[in-house]
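Sample log: GNAT family N-acetyltransferase.
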Amino acid sequence: MTNTPDTALARTAAELDEFLSRRSLRESSGPADSLRVTLRPLTPDDQDEYVELVRASKDLLHPWMSLPSTPEEFQAYLERFDHLTSQGLAVALRDGGAMAGTIYINSIIRGRFQCASVAYAAFAPTAGQGYMSEGLSLAVRYAFEQLRLHRLEANIQPGNHASLKLVERQGFRKEGYSPAMLFIDGEWRDHERWALTTNTPDKAHPSLPAR
Ligand SMILES: CC(C)(COP(=O)(O)OP(=O)(O)OC[C@H]1O[C@@H](n2cnc3c(N)ncnc32)[C@H](O)[C@@H]1OP(=O)(O)O)[C@@H](O)C(=O)NCCC(=O)NCCS
């Protein structure tokens, strides 16, 4: 089954709505306004704000992550988010709705793996205020509780202390080290391999074999 970009967007929006309205989420996070951020899908309408924020965040992003910095690159980038294998999320401030950062749930593999890879970036105007920690904790719960994944991976360059701290705070464990793993900013860069697993057999995804 494939998704058109509109269908993919609608499916991600519906899954996020269902997740964010869950009683278990409200109970564990306290009243809705105790979190300062929420998650929503990245949409074509985010183009101008996104491109402007990426340009303003050039020094923060370099050399850790390359993100689209023109309207054309942004629109092409959105096409990869087909919901089934990849989802692009905005971390939005509850107060006013501005984007504090973005989180990508990529390389979703079902069957016996039930695994995805997470990537994320803060935007400079609101970085370092805990918004990404809140956003990532929501995204991790969304991935486990709503998408019913079993494992999340984060691949991080050894010198990226802000990112290493961020995943450590979420309970990710370091599993290994891969030389020349990802092509970023013109180079094949070494990465530490971090991951988090959950075990909720009663909530297994339907594509997980019975045994
Ligand atoms: C990695 C990255 C997303 C972290 O974003 P961030 O905005 O610094 O994240 P947060 O604000 O949630 O957390 C950072 C700090 O805010 C602090 N903070 C401030 N107010 C806070 C609050 N109210 N609640 C929680 N933390 C708060 C935290 O203590 C934390 O500081 P510490 O790391 O020194 O302990 C950001 O540095 C980034 O975008 N880097 C470039 C792209 C990148 O590397 N992506 C990942 C590739 S693997």
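Observation: The mean pLDDT is 94.
Observation: Residues 31 and 111 are 36 Å apart (CA to CA).
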